[in-house]
Amino acid sequence: MTSSLFDFDSSLRKYMRGVKVEFDSASDGDGGSVDIAYQFNSVSGAFTSLQTGAVSGTEYALPGTRADSVSLKVTLNKGSSTLGPVFKRWYAKGAPVLTSYRVNEYILDLGGDSSMLEPVRLRNGQDHNLTGEQMRANLVTALGSTSPITVTDRTGTFTAILEPANCEFDLTRPGQWYARIRVREV
Fold first, then answer.
1. Which domain-ending residue is among 81, 96, 111?
2. Whether residue 122 has pLDDT greater than 60
3. How do residues 26-61 score in pLDDT, each as one tens digit?
4. For the residues 102-114, what does the mean pLDDT come to?
5. Residues forming a β-bridge with 65
6. Is the full-model pTM beyond 0.70?
7. What region does 153 belong to: left with phi over 0, alpha with psi -120 to 50, or beta?
8. How far apart are alpha carbons 27 and 4 in whole angstroms?
9. C-alpha separations of 162 from 7, 14, 109, 170 in Å
10. Which of 96, 113, 143 is the last residue of a domain?
11. Does 131 lie in the same domain as 60?
């Protein structure tokens, strides 16, 4: 018997963990035997043998492979029994491969424009042309948006969303702010 593809109702890639087959051995002769084979992501082509002479209810580990789905092939061997083993059910076990996203926290100096004593210096060497209040207002607008932003830091550039619940502003002097923001990569 060959199964259709077990995809666990998920399009995520999975770590394929194991297979278990339950059956009743025949009551006469040697009871027969059961062999288990598998194939990833297809129902056509060659199957790979997992276990010959399987024991009913025993889980057999699949090689630590990531795949979208698995197909099983169970062979019921009659042996010296009259009818051979009787198949009951099969199980496949897999766990989704979850994608990890980085979460970074930044402290931003919203210090002011060139009319201040110490203007904020940009990466390109120029002075920032917005006041601290304008920078804070722009950041508040970005926090209220659901659109992703581009973040460039010392580790590179990535796309992220702001987490408003984890952001705060501290007024240091009139018109000058520090902002603590958290971003999550998307």
1. 96
2. yes
3. 999 999 999 999 999 999 889 999 999 999 999 999
4. 81
5. 16
6. no
7. beta
8. 30
9. 34, 29, 17, 18
10. 96
11. no
